[in-house]
Amino acid sequence: MPGQPETWQSGAEGQLDRRRTESQGQIEQIGGNVERTYVMVKPDGVQRGLVGEVLRRVERRGLRIAALRMNTISREVAEKHYSEHMEKPFFKSLIGFITSGPSVSMVIEGQNAVSVMREINGATNPLNAAMGTIRGDFALDTGRNVVHASDSPGSAEREIAIHFRESEIAAYSRIDETWLYEN
To answer: 10: which strand partners?
Structure first.
């Protein structure tokens, strides 16, 4: 039933199956490769008033916003999030930027959510991003490219765990999912 609590369980090949609580006695599975991904509107996007635009594009594409938080990320969390860049020359300035003001962190769900979100965002370098993408429409510089999205399901799992507890992620079905997905 709509509005009832649900839990997520891992399915085959890392896919997520939506399962209703046992007390409801029903199981619902969304077809296809349902994934979770981590998305952040970076401090430049927040300061420029682009949070609503990013949310609009995510929802209009048919993805679910399962968790959402605005906060200023601590240095410790930022360093953990960007740990793969620790030895790169831009690491210090990246951490300074990402902790400079509020950002909006999200967990996004849907079929192929990782690749769909990367497509919505556009190329990391805004000069290479297609018009119609967030970066193609709103960014000019790689260091101020408005949004971050996980680059793989493995990165998504790691980044979600850094920014959210499982209890903070809502499981629900959008009313239009039967019109979005064939299976």
So the answer is: 16
Is 81 one of the catalytic residues? no
For the stretch 79-93, pLDDT in tens is 999 999 999 999 999
Question: How many domains, the chain?
Answer: 1
Within 13 Å and on the Cβ side, how many CA atoms surround 33?
A: 9
Least Cα distance to 122 among 149, 102, 99 occurs for 149
159: number of Cβ within 10 Å: 24
- Candidate list 81, 85, 148, 163, residue with the active-site label: 148
Q: What is the pLDDT of residues 14-71, one digit of tens each?
A: 444 444 333 332 224 445 678 999 999 999 999 999 999 999 999 999 999 999 999 9
Contacts of 111 (CB under 8 A, 6+ apart): 30, 31, 32, 33, 34, 35, 181
Domain CATH code at residue 68: 3.30.70.141
Asked whether the beta carbons of 105 and 72 are under 8 A apart, the reply is no
